[in-house]
Hints:
- By secondary structure, chain A is an alpha+beta fold.
- Chain A is 53% helix and 9% strand.
- In chain A, strands 2-1-3-4-5 form a five-stranded mixed sheet, with helices on one face.
- The N and C termini of chain A lie far apart (51 Å).
- The mean pLDDT of chain A is 86.
- A six-stranded antiparallel sheet of chain B has the order 1-11-10-9-8-2, with no helix packed on it. In chain B, strands 3-34-33-32 form a four-stranded antiparallel sheet, with no helix packed on it. In chain B, strands 4-5-6-7 form a four-stranded antiparallel sheet, with no helix packed on it.
- In chain B, a hairpin with a 4-residue loop joins strand 5 (108-112) and strand 6.
Amino acid sequence: xxxxxxxxxxxxxxxxGLRIFGGILALTHVFTFTHWFRNDFFVASQSALNAEPLxxxxxxxxxxxxxxxxxxxxxxxxxxxLALAVLTFALFFKKTTLTLTYGLFASLTLFKLTLVLSNxxxxxxxxxxxxxxxxxxxxxxxKKIALTGFIATFYFVSGLNKINFxxxxxxxxxxxKIIGVAAMPWALRYVIILETVLVFALFHRNKWVxxxxxxxxxxxxxxxxxxxxxxxxxxxxxxxxxxxxxxxxPCPLHPQDGQRLSFIAFASLxxxxxxFQALPHISSNVSPVGGIYRLGSIEVAQTSSRCKSLLLSHQxxxxxHLQKPRKKLxxxxxxxxxxxxxxxxxxxxxxxxxxxxxxxxxxxxxxxLTSLTYQKVLDLKSVCQRDNxxxxxxxxxxxx
Amino acid sequence: MKAYLLAWFCLFTVICAVIYQANPKALLLFxxxxxxxxxxxxxxxxxxxxxxxxxxxxxxxRYDQERRGVATTTDSPSVDxxxxxxxxxxxxxxxxxxxxxxxxxxxxxxxxxDSGWFFKMNHQGEILWRFYVPGSxxxxxxxxxMDDKKVYFGAYNGALYALxxxxxxxxxxxxxxxFIGASPLLADNGLFISAETRGPNGLVARxxxxxxxxxWVSEWLGGHSHSSPAFDPLTGSILVGANSGRLFSLxxxxxxxxxxxxxxxxxxxxxxxxxxxxxxxxWDKHLYAVAIQTGEVLWQTFMGGKLQTSxxxxxxxxxxxxxxxxxxxxxxxxxxxxxxxxxxxGDRDHLSSFLVTMYKGKAIAWNRCKKSRLCAxxxxxxxxxxxxQLPGTFTxxxxxxxxxxxxxxxxxxxxxxxx
Lengths: 400, 419
């Protein structure tokens, strides 16, 4: 094991481009810190005072764990995370502390993963991409092949996800001022071509061809900045920078002799990744609006959805259609069944000792912005009867 | 490298072809954007349990499908009423629109409030169950309709609810549009509702009263539809007004527009059907009598002020009652449109429609006069018979059941029962 890890360290620090890329990956944690620090988002999400906590289905009572830590302590944890990120970033430029740098970066990645898993509200397709890239960087041999192959695949999958009417009609976007109305449909179509076809020119032998694609992808991210904020474009640009750092980009489809075994490992991971991306689309005929099937998906261009939810609380002589979650969640969560199931789960827990409380039912209907028809995602007649309602979708979301 | 690029390009072309086959519009792009994205109505029905009922009204806003506002002969309170019960809290807001009017049958009294609570109470005013509606600061403004088993009402969160009259649990819910401020109509074995969308615009939908499924949706009404639909059984017409100033006649089976009539101000009141004529008030200060068959205006009368309430028919007489927003109660000859009597009370913020009851063979007209007073008038002459002080003002309409009158008051003054 140690030998294997030492090989990874050697591979990274032998290559200047990979070493700098490690620094950039460390820098993404500074971006994450900034994103979480703004408007006290991180502490407010983790706080015991958060009235609408969000948990992953496999950790349904995460808020009880979070409540053990005070707000000030969470603030301290966030600052510690920043300090660790800055230190790791700096050490990547010092050649004498290779093992320490590698260890710190691994710890930093694990630390962020732990924080993300403690709160479903931190879920983000870009976080997942950086996490995958960091894991490949740390533990997978043939790093240049694996990283470039996966980063190009991120674009390819993202491009495929955009082949829908909502994207083509511009429904998922706020009109960027620098692109005129007339140019917009062509720009949107071109983005799909860029991400699904031209992106493979990133592996072209000619560096000018490669760089021209990098430039176009960079422009795409910069244009998206005013619409989606700083975080997603900066993470994407960080990953994209790898193609500028490598003087020659190896073609993932042409492994050299002696690399076959590593290549098979990489290809298996790649196929597994693609399977996770396909899962939201093949798991149900309902527009992928989130939920458990999206947990491994990097879908970042959200298909705008509309949803209608009906959470009904039944007590003796009193029923109430309860307000949907008030939390100002982005498009990523707007119609996410896990968010609604979390709300129901909290209410079940709060009411388990209330004698008047009879049951809680939850229905969720969604439709893509471009369709007129709503489809049933959840229809649970008695949510509290389930041991863990957050997995409700796995049973077609329908409870007789 | 070229071979790989070519392979990817072919793959991409195949994917596009598949998507195009599945949905040709997917590649049409911008020109249809507004059509596709501007969803006219949210038909999102959720069935909670099965409870089939007759779909025949046992009570609804303005009493009957023609919306005449006349209590049945058994509902005949005397004029010597006093407050016997006050249920509070009730309406809490000051939104300047008519609040929900109670409806009643032998099972109890049903009414919603702008706080979002919908209540069932017994005839003595004790609450039997209640149901909460979230999602809008305006809560419930529309009155309910009910058949033998279910009670139906819309809310400003855009949902139409069908509740089990027994225990208040939902039978079905349909998210019809963005807002519902009007009252549902039970007629022709169907349920009809005016609903509103952001824009602003409005429409009428016919629904299955047992499942909540939408059978048809009318054309756009051109403005919000605060006006509740009325039904003419002779021609099979649904009649409804809109803030666009238009009065629509819709085919009850298909929802297709038979005719529409443009007035010069929003039509917010509910049309009243009597014989072959529909009567409707408008903010253009006119009362209109329109032939239901043709849409021809038979007469129009200038009333001197904006009209927002519905006309009430006095039984056995060619007389209709309404009130203006310049503080007058008015009796109008329904044949000619001539004003028969006027009672000036000076209360300008007047949004309540008349209730007419029969007492000792005489038609009694009940309505608000001055801010917090309920008046009983001789419907024929407009002469004031009785004037009762209430604990607060009201914008709903009085409702009579047996020997009692129920009034839902505004601004936290509660619901009062007079006996």
